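Appendix B.2, paired examples.
Example (i):
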Amino acid sequence: MKLYSDAQSALAGLLHDDMVIMAGGFGLCGIPEVLIGAIRDSGVKGLTVISNNAGVDGIGLGILLETKQVVKMVSSYVGENKMFAQQFLAGELEVEFNPQGTLAERIRAGGAGIPAFYTKTGFGTLIAEGKETRQFNGENYVMETGLFADLAVVHAFKGDAEGNLVYRKTARNFNPMMATAAKVTVAQVENLVNAGEIDGDHVHTPGIFVNRMIHVPNAQKRIEQRTVRKHLETAGETV
């Protein structure tokens, strides 16, 4: 059975110090928050975390920074996390920055068994320092390596008993590719259905990539930056 009763049991036997973890999500959208909480509670340390960003202070991966369980982040955008910046500037956190598209392709490549690829992005910048470069058809490229983790934790909108997953809109982000790029993938699923209820054409992550899963029916949908418009009357406008 792939379905476990809670995050702690789903992660049992998988966590250890100095491991590499991929965590899906973009900002606070589509993050496996319950699974991240269980990782924190386990007390594992020395973690290298591959994620587009590090959540925000006190939410998402931010809680692993608070406890200083993370020693290295492989990320793209981290500008919303003050603690991340503080630890980086203090030399307490190693950061491997990636252009966002390059990060996505490194993860996809890792899941596809591709050890490295060439991209124009970052050539001639700090990103390319120490990396192999080549010319193709007169254009300069920098070599980037694929990424593969010990564990991937992802969030899905829907899943069935066989582990087939469906993501909803922008919460899809990094989750599908990360689910393919780790030795073990654990998913938290908002809506759990019976095997066969998901149309095969609608499956984003086939169950063969998912080892364990938990049902999180009331997953909290957090807003990173709430943006609202003024009510027409209070703005002094007429309808």
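Example (ii):
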Amino acid sequence: MNKVFDDATTALQDVQDGMTLMLGGFGLCGIPENGIAALVAKGVRNLTCISNNAGVDDFGIGLMLQQRQVRKMISSYVGENAEFERQLLSGELEVELIPQGSLAERCRAGGAGIPAFFTPAGYGTEVQDRKEVRWFNGKAHILEYALTADFALVKAWKGDTDGNLIFKGTARNFNPPMAMAGKITVAEVEELVPAGALDPNQIHTAGIFVQRIFQGEAYEKRIEKRTTR
């Protein structure tokens, strides 16, 4: 199976309106910049996007929100995007907010084939609304269902032609669990090497989870808020 594609445009050519997408990253760290740019250029609409956050107004998923491509966001933090806020308050955008740990576990469970799990996070809040509650060891837990997606878009530091991935530092974040949970996982990497060139002990995501891979280009790697002493 040849997994290597020339670029994001060809790797995502069969993404269609109405699909559910997972997009790795945390803030702007480790986001699939090339994949997002290809989706904006393609103009697909009515998407459900599962991502820790919604980017910023002029970068990341924020670019897709500007073009009204997203119907629903499933996220844990959305505080850096004024356009997101505007669309939410005006009723243009459907939003499901999830505790961050629950979001990570729902993605991981989806990739592991676990349909649902109980967690105490969110009990007694709006997160609990209409969810089954059970008690374990004297503590209330709510039922959360696993998440999967038609496509998962992830970004890694290095990958090989078999789809094995290595992430760098905090850019690892949501990328590995989302890579497991996509029916088709598309990985963009800064460096693409031949199969067998990676140290097996350093691989974070095995190639069995990755169906398509390409070498990205022109990464900006923006920082939302630069903090100095």
